[in-house]
Every structure is written in structure tokens, then in C-alpha cells.
Amino acid sequence: MTAFSDTLIERLVAADRVSVLTGAGISAESGVPTFRDPGGLWEKMRPEELANFSAFLSNPTLVQGWYAHRRHIVEVAQPNAGHVALAELETLYHDFTLVTQNVDDLHRRAGSRNIVELHGNIMRNYCVDCGQPADEPNLASPDERGLIVCTECSGLVRPDVVWFGEMLPLGAFEAADAAARRAEVFLSVGTSAIVYPAAGLPGTAKIHGAFVAELNIRESVIADDLHEVVLGPAATVLPDLVRAIKDKRPPAK
Ligand code: BV8
User: Fold this and answer.
1) Which of 195, 218, 236 to mutate to test the pocket of ligand 1 (most atoms within 8 A of CB)?
2) Domain edges within the chain
3) pLDDT < 50 stretches in the chain
4) At the N or C end, where does the chain have fewer CB atoms within 10 A?
5) Strands 148-150 and 140-142, how do they pair?
6) For 179-219, how does the pLDDT look when each residue is reduced to its tens digit (9 = 90+)?
7) 33-76+125-161: which CATH architecture?
């Protein structure tokens, strides 16, 4: 059983408003590679070469192929016990917000409902020229170069994810920021806390009075600023955390 502080448990038992930020670490045990861990996605290729619009325009074959590869990994992945535990945690609170940096569908597939996707969703695609969604075979097809283009206007198809230097989806960060400001407990799970504005959310929660804990297999760069760090894999730590509190809380939903 994972060791939690009495304060974290007491605050979770008493809270009405809980928010959670997740990063790639929560999907690692589902077989979805993270970005900055050893063996992660950025180990082989630099983000500048893949996760920004100019890289996409200069090498659409590479970027479209990279996202097709990642989409396949997500399609065959299953939510793990960490995703499922967060879906169960949500049922214990009237006001629960799950903010994710992840672009996989695993939180929704695990049953989480109030999800804020800060960086979009890899399962959605759209045409860069006309904006038409391009997720159905009749809406996007390979052209003579082998590039996936829009059937409406022949524009390049891109994933509906937020690349570096791009604004977050309208309203997403505002919803996440509001959830951090009103949270009584804020959990930062499986993120290196390097990418902004997402990485600022735990600090925002702390400034506004939340008890902020990091759940990770190693300390992130913001660990020293938080109230507690719980070390261990998310698929173990999160179910242990839910077990530690749920008998003390009536289901809210
Ligand atoms: C923005 C694409 C406003 C989607 C990603 C100059 C110009 C413009 C902006 C900036 C600039 N300088 C800085 C910025 C801001 C920039 C930024 O933060 N850069 C960083 C690198 C310094 N941010 C942006 O550009 C954002 N937009 O600011 O817009 C704007 C606009 C224009 C001009 C000015 C401002 C957009 C950010 C989104 C970038 N998109 N990816 C995709 O392909 O997936 S980033 C990528 O990193 C992913 O989205 C991911 O979500 C994100 C964070 O990574 P993590 O999830 O934390 O994953 P990581 O691998 O790093 O860490 C894994 C963690 O899990 C580790 O801690 C590990 O220990 C842990 N772990 C591993 N296994 C487990 C585990 N934990 C628990 N259990 C386990 N089993």
C-alpha cells in the first residue's frame, strides 16, 4: 500500500472541490510512450522536428507518419488502473475536474467525464486549409505523394493537437485555470511539468489555498514547490489513494 500523508487523506476526505492534472506518465503503463523519459518519443526525434506547425509544413510526410504511428499505439492501448481510479475518484466529488495534457483517449475510455483536454486529441484530425474534420475515410485520402489530404479542398490533414507555439483550444486553459483556483486538493499526476501553460496549474492551485500533491515515479522540476510528493507508478498509487479515502466519503454522483 502506498504511503500518503495524513494531511492528504484528511484533505481529500473533507474536500468538495478536487482537480487533477495528468501528463504522459499516467498512460505509460498502458504502453503509450512518454515524451521525455528514457526511450520516450523525444529521445529519437526532437520536438522541434515534429510537434510544431512549421515542421509539419516542411516535412508533412514525417509528421503525418509520426502521428499515424502514435494513433495506432493509442487505438490498441487500454486504460490502466490509474485511469480507472481517476474515473472512480470523480464519482466521490460534486466538483471534480480532470485536466489532461495527454492527447490519447484513455481517460474518456476509462469512464472519466469532466475532462479538459489542454492539448487536443490525437484521434481527431482536420484540414489545415478549410478546417473540415478529416476523421472519416471519405473526408481524407492519400494523394499521389502519399500525403493525407482533404477530399473537399485537397488541403493537408493535421492532427487536432496543440503544437509548440500554438494557442490552446478556446476555453480549455480558462476552464483548467478556474478549476485550479477553486480546488481544495490538486493532484499533479505523471507530468514532468515542463510545458506551459499546463505546468503552471499546480502553482496556481497552491497560491489559491489548495493542498497540492505530485504523484510520479520521480520528482518533477516543480516538486520542491508542492506540499507532498508521492513516488510510485500511477497505476498503483492512484488505486491505493482511492482505496484510502472512499470508505470515508459517501458517493457524490
Ligand atoms: C502556448 C503536442 C501560447 C501534442 C506538446 C516560445 C514561443 C511560444 C511558446 C513558448 C515559447 N517558450 C515557451 C513557450 C511555451 C511552450 C512551452 O511550454 N515550451 C516548453 C518546452 C518550455 N508552450 C507552448 O508552446 C504551448 N502553447 O504557450 O501558447 C503562446 C502561443 C504563441 C506564442 C506565445 C505563447 C503549447 C504546449 C503544447 C505543446 N504540445 N505536444 C502531442 O504531439 O502530444 S508538448 C508534450 O509535452 C505533450 O503535449 C505533453 O502533454 C506535454 C507535457 O509532457 P508530459 O505529459 O509531462 O510528459 P513527459 O514525457 O515530459 O513526462 C512524463 C512524466 O511522467 C515524467 O515526470 C515521468 O517521471 C512520469 N512518469 C513516467 N512513468 C510514470 C510516470 N508517472 C507516474 N507513473 C508512471 N508509470
Assistant:
1) 195
2) 1-32+79-119+168-248, 33-76+125-161
3) none
4) N
5) antiparallel
6) 999 999 999 999 999 999 999 999 999 999 999 999 999 99
7) 2-Layer Sandwich (3.30)
Q: Which atom of ligand 1 is nearest to the CA of 220?
A: 67
pTM of the complete model beyond 0.90: yes
Q: Measured from the CA of 193, which atom of ligand 1 is nearest? A: 57
CA nearest 26: which of 81, 97, 67, 108? 81
Whether ligand 1 lies within 6 angstroms of the CB of 192 is answered as: yes
> In degrees rounded to 5, what are phi and psi of residue 3?
-85, 120
CA-nearest residue, atom 19 of ligand 1 = 195
pLDDT for residue 252? 80
- What is the DSSP secondary-structure string of 112-149? --SEEETTEEEEEEEETTT--B--STTTEEE-TTS-EE
Tell me which architecture the domain covering 1-32+79-119+168-248 has in CATH: 3-Layer(aba) Sandwich (3.40)
In the reported structure, the alpha carbon of residue 193 is separated from the centroid of ligand 1 by a whole-number distance in angstroms of: 7
